[in-house]
Amino acid sequence: MDLKLSTLLCLTLLFSTILSPALSELCNPKDKKVLLQIKKAFNDPYALSSWNPKTDCCDWYSVTCDSTTNRVNSLTLFSGGLSGQIPPQVGDLPYLELLQFHKQPNLTGPIQPSIAKLKSLKELRLSWTNISGSVPDFLSQLKNLTFLELSFNNLSGSIPSSLSQLPNLDALHLDRNKLTGHIPKSFGEFHGSVPELYLSHNQLSGNIPTSLAKLDFNRIDFSRNKLEGDASMIFGLNKTAQIVDLSRNLLEFNLSKVEFSKSLTSLDLNHNKITGSIPVGLTQLDLQFLNVSYNRLCGQIPVGGKLQSFDSSAYIHNRCLCGAPLPSCT
Ligand SMILES: *[C@@H]1O[C@H](CO)[C@@H](O)[C@H](O)[C@H]1NC(C)=O
Ligand SMILES: *[C@@H]1O[C@H](CO)[C@@H](O)[C@H](O)[C@H]1NC(C)=O
Ligand SMILES: *[C@@H]1O[C@H](CO)[C@@H](O)[C@H](O)[C@H]1NC(C)=O
Ligand SMILES: *[C@@H]1O[C@H](CO)[C@@H](O)[C@H](O)[C@H]1NC(C)=O
Ligand SMILES: *[C@@H]1O[C@H](CO)[C@@H](O)[C@H](O)[C@H]1NC(C)=O
Ligand SMILES: *[C@@H]1O[C@H](CO)[C@@H](O)[C@H](O)[C@H]1NC(C)=O
Ligand SMILES: *[C@@H]1O[C@H](CO)[C@@H](O)[C@H](O)[C@H]1NC(C)=O
């Protein structure tokens, strides 16, 4: 190529990038406007200093855009620096698929109602914040949700039964809040996929609904609540459960007759009021974790499988359990 021509081309390229940033800007102007409103609503925090109106919003920290439409599809605000409530403008990013606020201790107020408008949302993750109020019913209208995480907040009230209508849910994490009331009966029948259910560290009370006998879940964590009565419906030979944690509740049922599926790898029942004995069926499983301590169990620990591979702390403080790894039954 001719030297003059190539210089000219270079200069043209240089000037076009300097003089008209709009040509290279991918960000949709509507999305940019909304993001700047969000920044303003948070009082221009240092955490959002990369949100400079002169630059492409698809390059901003915490923001990503879809590679074909260039619409903002995720907003992930981690690790502090934001205070106040989630601004209503988050509902005006119609292509958002992931919305996450994590480790924001100064984030307060309710789960913003305008989130109801985000019909494309696949993941809503609000965790380790001081968001309060109830788990809103409108979340059940966000049919594309696969991951709903509201863990480690200050949420109260009861769990809306409508959440079982979410057809694509893989994970429902409501653990570590101040939720009260019962586990909804509807959780026995999720309308689509069955999510892993983390409800631990709340103040849930009453019986576990018998409808959960129909539920084929992989992971359940109901630990550290005030659940009472029977929990045997969670188990069964045909279940697919791998990890079950029911520890630190007020559960009261006879373990002797409970049958366990081969899929179970981790079972924590510590600190309940469980009676009966440890069923021989447990020797058939490839258990990696077992803890039945602090219950009202009796009789000999069956010999075999993994049952003797756990130390005595997995069995201590029962009414009259005996045999390895506890002292022998004389
Ligand atoms: C929360 O707010 C307090 C008081 O304004 C401030 O000292 C602290 O740094 C904030 N924390 C975070 C993680 O933003
Ligand atoms: C909620 O705020 C309190 C202080 O107001 C703070 O100690 C606590 O860590 C916050 N919770 C979370 C999960 O950040
Ligand atoms: C929901 O997901 C499906 C499948 O990925 C997609 O075709 C549809 O457009 C999504 N709906 C919305 C409102 O984004
Ligand atoms: C947590 O919620 C309770 C009401 O349930 C409220 O009194 C308290 O101030 C909230 N804590 C924070 C740090 O926002
Ligand atoms: C388990 O499944 C088998 C075969 O699918 C069926 O015959 C049996 O009735 C089921 N048992 C229970 C307790 O549901
Ligand atoms: C538990 O069930 C077994 C088997 O049916 C029975 O022998 C035992 O007495 C029951 N234990 C209690 C405490 O109800
Ligand atoms: C079983 O749980 C008890 C009570 O929380 C705990 O002290 C013990 O260390 C646990 N043992 C095992 C093996 O998990």
Automatic annotation (TrEMBL):
Family membership: Belongs to the polygalacturonase-inhibiting protein family.
Positions of transmembrane segments: none
Lineage: Eukaryota, Viridiplantae, Streptophyta, Embryophyta, Tracheophyta
PROSITE patterns per the UniProt record, alphabetical: LRR (PS51450)
Compartment(s) of residence: Cell envelope
Matches recorded under SUPFAM superfamilies: L domain-like
Name recorded for this polypeptide: Polygalacturonase inhibitor-like
Keyword Cytoplasm attached: no
Origin: domain of life: Eukaryota
Entry keyword set: Leucine-rich repeat, Repeat, Signal
Position of the signal peptide: 1-24
All copies of domain Leucine-rich repeat-containing N-terminal plant-type, residue ranges: 29-66
